[in-house]
Amino acid sequence: MSKQIKAVALISGGLDSMLAAQTVIEQGVHVEGINFFTGFCVEGHTHAIRKKDKAKPKRNNSLWVAEQLGMKLHIVDIIEEYKDVLINPKYGYGANMNPCLDCKIFMVNKAKQWIQENDFDFIITGEVMGQRPMSQRKETMPVVARESGADDLLLRPLCAKNLPITKPEREGWVNRELLHDFSGRSRKPQMALADEFGFEDYAQPAGGCCFLTDKSYSKKLVDLWETRGDKDYDLDDVMLLKVGRHIRPNPRFKIMVAREEGEARFMTGYKKTFINMNCSTHRGPLALLVGEPNEEDIKLAAKILARYGQGREAQEVGVEVRLLNGEIQQINIKPLLVTEIPQAWFI
Amino acid sequence: MSLYTLDARRLLCPLPVIRTQDKIKQLQVGDELEVTSTDPGVMQDIPTWCSINGHKVLETQQQNNDYIIRLQVGE
Fold first, then answer.
1. Residues of chain A with pLDDT > 90: what percent?
2. Which of A26, A56, A73, B29 lies 20 to 30 Å (CA to CA) from residue A49?
3. CATH number of this structure's domain B3-72
4. CA A147, A179, A183: angle at the middle one, nearest 5?
């Protein structure tokens, strides 16, 4: 009896990895999925924070893909290990703070470790040559295979025919003729293959699946590092950069103002960590003060906060300030005008 | 068979799923695990994860801001 060949597929939750896994499943290989959680994934927890997303189903797309394909999914927390990838990327950053090539090398390397520990035979990714400007180019795809250590155990079923033969093909574990030759940024071949497989529903994330590709998010991350004086971060930092308006009047502090109820509820969990405030005489949002604001800074923060409450036109607004020592201060201020908040303060 | 608990409050998905997955690795087939989370996303994600990984959801309930899922470890 021949040995059952087993592969692990990197599953992002998007269409390409779904198609790549299914292409190999169709050839009789036992495929299980693996999903790496860096903390910067757009999936999941971001959707849980904002109230405006409440109407949408809160499905995790990688889990959903695994369910559709009838395969197991292993979700791996790589938050700590990923710091080195983000802080010291050998191949640098993309348009924003996205270290895509280093990230792909890191994840394929983790998958290589996983198949060794779990007695699997090879790795599948949904990469398509020429689809992404950094990690999925003709020049960089061999770099991923080589530097990850996966070498010819890395199979890219969607563009395998454009690449050198790999061990799974050479050994006859998969039939190269049944793999694909997709290339470029067009999504039409993927759509056609999805039709062929009968996939009617799949995630089409706009702007990718990682916050590090987002300009606004990247700017906030750089601000965090610059004002802190080092590039370390933890999961709370990562999550707080996703919520609220971030306004920095000076290097001592920034004020984070909740934009809606869901964000305010989330930020409430940090009331014991940061000086926080809200309007006491009018309805308005919660704000956190991150850094080491002095007395004048706190007054300025209150004036900014009041700008975003229902008292924005009032001559005087009361603001309750909760300090970290438990002291509660009541201050009365006049809200700033829009024109009094310089655009440069917005991160 | 033993009953275990996992406090995944203040974590947002997929972290409660990851913590559940890691806890189950330490348990025996037939053991029960009660996961408490504050992220409503677990009500969809943990049952989906259980279904694809061979575990059984015995009960789900909401108590104030807590979402509680009791599951049984499968093969």
1. 79
2. A73
3. 3.30.110.40
4. 65
